[in-house]
Write a structure and sequence with these properties.
By secondary structure, the protein is of the alpha+beta class. It folds into 2 domains: 2-24 and 158-337, no CATH class; 29-139, no CATH class. The protein contains 10 helices and 11 strands. It has helices at residues 2-18, 140-157, 159-171, 175-197, 205-224, 233-236, 238-260, 267-299, 301-308, 313-337; strands at residues 29-35, 40-50, 53-54, 58-60, 65-66, 74-75, 79-88, 96-100, 109-114, 120-125, 131-133. The strands form 2 sheets. Strands 1, 2, 3, 5, 6, 7, 9 and 10 form an 8-stranded mixed beta sheet that branches. Strands 4-8-11 form a 3-stranded antiparallel beta sheet, with no helix packed on it. α1 (2-18) crosses α8, α4 runs antiparallel to α8 (267-299) and α9 (301-308) packs across α10 (313-337). The two termini are 43 Å apart. The relative contact order is 0.16.
Length: 338
């Protein structure tokens, strides 16, 4: 199982060099359309912030509606918001909704609409699919095909969560202990994701995000202070450590899901779909790390051994790298709410 951890080294170096020091890359636009009367709809349009300005994309309603686009957006501290009332004499059913210039970005837009009260639908628009035909009858497939990709996007864009998993892979050399640790982490964050999303538990997001960074710092410290023949706390009780910190990471997932929003008539299905996406993305990440580790084990075995062995220059450097990045996140998040 040691070669498994080798792959982690390569993926970690790639992540550190190509990803910004930001925890969550998932910043979708959000468009919500709800009926007021048979011919009028309230439109809420949220665009991501890009260097202090609204992202250059625009929601365009069907041609029968007036106005088709909203007023100038207002910044609310995290996104650029606009809302208006649109009149569509012939209704919206069968019309085409488009996000103009979305094809020039790497951003997604989550669209939720009700053509009649209680009949909501959800769509995810991307650079490859910038428009959707508005249909009247909602379907469970829409929720699945929208929230599973959003869950995958979130975990793959959530560098802090992946860095935690990466550190676990480096730290735990025993195969079954590693499987147990990953399983415990998955179970824990699934529990708190569900509980927080359904309103049973509530914690402020800013301190949670800071403690998530602190959890990665703890694993980095464990990596740095390993010695041959000596088991660290996280090596002796990997399931307990993973489960405990997994509970915190679940609150982080719940915060992202709250920002995205859930269809009120399909909350359980949307929650399940998002969680499936998160788990699929996490397993995909682990699989890629394993694959890279196998390649390193075959091509540069000396480097592979240095990655997984305590107190080598390579493993020490990686521990400092993980610790440095997580420390940056911790102090950045700490100053954000103090």
């Amino acid at each position: 199982m040691r070669w498994v951890l080798l792959l982690i080294a390569a993926i970690g170096l790639v992540c550190f060099q190509t990803s910004p020091l930001r925890a969550h890359a998932l910043e979708p636009g959000y468009l919500e359309i709800s009926p007021l009367t048979d011919s009028t709809w309230r439109v809420f349009w949220s665009r991501p912030d890009v260097k202090g300005r609204a992202m250059d994309i625009e929601a365009v309603l069907p041609s029968d509606c007036s106005p088709r686009s909203g007023p100038e957006p207002v910044f609310n501290g995290s996104a650029w918001i606009a809302s208006w009332v649109a009149s569509c004499a012939e209704g919206m059913t069968g019309g085409t909704l488009e996000i103009d210039k979305l094809d020039l970005t790497r951003t997604d837009v989550l669209v939720r609409y009700e053509l009649t009260p209680g009949a909501g639908r959800t769509h995810r628009l991307t650079a490859d699919q910038t428009s959707v035909s508005l249909e009247g009858d909602p379907g469970w497939q829409d929720v699945l095909f929208t929230y599973i990709p959003l869950g995958v996007d979130h975990i793959l864009g959530g560098i802090d969560h992946l860095l935690f998993v990466f550190a676990l892979l480096l730290l735990i050399s025993d195969g079954w202990r590693l499987v147990g640790a990953i399983t415990a982490f998955t179970l824990a964050h699934s529990l708190t994701l569900a509980a927080a999303t359904l309103g049973y538990i509530s914690l402020p997001s800013a301190p949670v995000e800071a403690v998530i960074a602190l959890s990665i710092m703890f694993l980095a410290s464990e990596l740095l202070h390993r010695h041959k023949g000596e088991l660290r706390l996280s090596e002796r009780y990997p399931w307990t450590i993973s489960f405990s910190f997994g509970l915190l990471h679940g609150f982080g997932f719940a915060g992202a899901l709250a920002d995205i929003g859930l269809p009120q008539e399909d909350v359980p299905l949307a929650l399940l779909s998002f969680n499936i996406g998160v788990e699929a993305g996490q397993l995909g990440f682990v699989a890629v790390v394993f694959a890279i580790g196998w390649v390193l084990h075959r091509t540069v075995p000396a480097f592979a051994r240095a990655v997984v062995s305590p107190s080598t220059a390579v493993s020490t450097l990686m521990a400092y790298g993980i610790g440095g990045i997580s420390a940056y996140w911790f102090f950045d998040r700490l100053t954000g709410f103090l």
